[in-house]
Amino acid sequence: MSQDIYIVVEHLRGQVADISYVMLAAARELSKGTGGNVVAVLLGHEAQSLAGNLAADKVLYIDHPALADFSSDAYQKVLSVLISKEQPRVTLFGSTSIGTDIASVLSIRLGFPLVSSCRSFSTDGKFVSQICGGKIMAEGELPSPTALVTMVPGGYKPEQGQSAQAPAVTQVESPVLDALRVSLAKYIEPEPGDIDIAKEPILIAVGRGIQNQDNLELANSLAEALGGVVCGSRPVIDQGWLATSRLVGKSGKHVKPKIYLAMGISGAPEHTEAITDSDTIIAINTDPKAPIFNIAKYGTESDIFDLVEVLTNKVKEAKGG
Amino acid sequence: MNVAVLVKLVPDLVEELTVDASGVALDTAWLRLIINEFDDHAIEQGVLLKERSGCQLTIVAPDVEGVDDLLFTASAKGADKLIKIKGDFNGVNNHALARAAAAVIKELHPDLVITGVQANNDLDGSVGPLLAECLGMPYVGYVSGITLSEGKSRARKEYPGGLIAEMDVILPAVLGIQAAEQPPRYVAVSKVRQVMKTASIEEQSAPALEPSGGPTIGRMFQPEAAAHATMITGSADEVATKLVGIFKELGVL
Ligand SMILES: Cc1cc2nc3c(=O)[nH]c(=O)nc-3n(C[C@H](O)[C@H](O)[C@H](O)COP(=O)(O)OP(=O)(O)OC[C@H]3O[C@@H](n4cnc5c(N)ncnc54)[C@H](O)[C@@H]3O)c2cc1C
Ligand SMILES: Nc1ncnc2c1ncn2[C@@H]1O[C@H](COP(=O)(O)O)[C@@H](O)[C@H]1O
User: Fold this and answer.
1) Residue B237: its chain A contacts at CB < 8 A?
2) CA–CA separation, A7 vs A90, rounded Å?
3) Which of A10, A27, A92, A180 has its CA 20 to 30 A from that of A117?
4) Contact in structure between B151 and B43 (CB atoms under 8 Å)
5) pLDDT per position as a tens digit, A85-98
6) Given ligand 2 and candidates A208, A265, A266, A306, which is best to mutate, with the most ligand atoms within 8 Å of its CB?
């Protein structure tokens, strides 16, 4: 048993993911309360250099060829040995494609309680998680004596978890990793988009509230009038109404336009985590409680189908006049 | 091949959500439960696998209000077998659900189990990986496509920015579905009604629910926004005029 706070470093193809730095910042907060160290756990192959700017007191590095790319089975094997031996007070994982593949499995395997979708902590060991698409928060004491946690972004800035000074790295021996049940066959690169929405200054974003593909014409006309580009939330892309290259969010692109005009988007965390760098967010949503209004600068409860056409005409007038 | 889909019901976020008098749970009096959106995708993926490879498709769901409709709808889409797990699942966490479902699903001797990658009320991890470990199977989540071959599956796993990793996963396995290969199909209510007359729901009892492994909630609340949007009100015409003013201020008009 220790008072240390562990974070499992997430990286993909030679790049540390921002959530790793968010977790380091969170771990620092928790360590103030426990008095333990912030320990970053890095799994990989010839990947030690990734430890360079982690704001950790110590890095445990496990190198194995089977860890060159993420395999849930391999990560679970390594981490179950390490965590059951060291019993850190808290271990943080990303609430991501990597972290959620391992945290729940370890909770059952090790019998350690798990808290998911955690956004922030207080120094005295309370967690705050967000559920119900960002509409409800749940707060509680971190389970003791050992807890596993998956973290969403938003509570800490990645810069808080970066350091100019390289941390001390200790290499830890990997357990045997053979007969893995999960392994990478190959990567498929994203299709090159017609347009890179990450670079566009004016984005008109449509969500499920647009109802069907024909109605996308409303967004197209407004975008054309304003000189902007149309993008969308996941349900719109999953329906095939817009190309995958136009997806904004956790599984799509992070955007940082001057104006992000969201219509019929509720503001689920998986969407909003990718738009907070926008200069000005404007939201059109008939639900006054939609979480999108909590991050938008301007909002209106007007109905898309009453407002957008009128708006487009007024924009055209303003341009013409 | 046997494919099982585990499904759960979650609060409909379109409805007003309120916290009950205890302060630590949602008020169920006002709650409408609907199928977890990602479980709906899991059902679709299961039906697609059945259409492609002729597997036996079983849908498993805990006994909560609305579950019969959900199961009959899945049957109308093509599921072969429907199982309802008996027990008091209201407010039960995912650790308990996963353990109960594992006991039922084990008996089906599945080659593949699929479930939604997450649900909007998860607080103790998602049910897929918890279930996988209870069954001693490997798990891969964020999946948006599956190909089955002898003893093996290939899963399209999503990473941020549109990157896909094709993962080889030895069967039997549990896969967490982010999106089916095509949007969930629609079935007419009349077809569901028809199915209700012929299809049957098997009821299975699970061992006592065992929720250890989740957190205890001390307080549940609606987020107090640090800064709420400045709301623009009025008729569509008035709102549009004000928005044009904002566009001008921001220098895009
Ligand atoms: C692992 C994972 C990754 C994900 N990645 C992403 C991602 O990259 N991007 C993403 O967007 N989502 C992602 N999601 C999905 C996310 O959780 C939400 O389900 C999704 O963002 C909701 O999209 P939406 O806001 O368009 O739809 P909804 O949440 O259904 O919201 C529709 C909104 O439209 C409003 N509305 C309806 N009619 C009108 C009208 N006439 N006028 C005005 N407003 C109206 C409603 O009030 C509602 O708020 C991911 C989910 C998971 C589990
Ligand atoms: N106009 C809308 N307003 C709010 N929610 C919607 C709207 N259209 C679709 N949805 C949501 O999307 C879900 C599936 O809708 P559908 O597009 O009809 O399959 C519904 O249960 C709602 O949660």
Assistant:
1) 310
2) 8
3) A180
4) no
5) 999 999 999 999 99
6) A208
